[in-house]
Structures are given as C-alpha cells and as structure tokens.
Amino acid sequence: MGYAILRAVVARGLVSSGLLPTLGIHHHNRYNAYCLADDIMEPYRPYVDELVCDIMKKGGDYGMLTKELKGQLLTIPSLDVIISGKRSPLMIAVG
Q: What range defines the domain where residue 37 resides?
C-alpha cells in the first residue's frame, strides 16, 4: 500500500504539471495508465521503504490493514525528502 500511495502522489504531480502519466521512459505497458508515474517514483521508493521498516520495527500485527497502520502510511505524502540539498515534503518535491 505504501507504493500505491507514492504512485498516486507522483501521478497527481505529473497531471497537475500538464504531463501525461501514460508516456513512460522505462516503463512501457499499454495496459498501465501510469508508466511515467512508475518511472518518476523510483527514486522515492527508499523513503517509503524506510517508513515501512520503522513501522515494522515497532512490532505489532501488520498482517491486517488496521486503522492505525493506514494512519501511519498516510504520512507518506508529507515525508521529508532531500533533493539537491533541499528538504521538502514528498508531495511538494514531486509536484
């Protein structure tokens, strides 16, 4: 679910910038409407991975998508990312 949220944030940023998310660079699949979003999200995957690892280290049963887990995953758009030495929320960085 973490990557799905990341993908949605990236796709939203692409569309709001006037780009077509279907025209990918490395991802090509005519049944995938978000090939470019899949390309652009690649460098941001480690931020999601780090969040998920932190969640898992805290323990608990994460076999089910609980309200608590959803809340933690919904912080993904506001994760701080660093690009060219500048820190900004993920949602702003991809927009």
A: 2-93
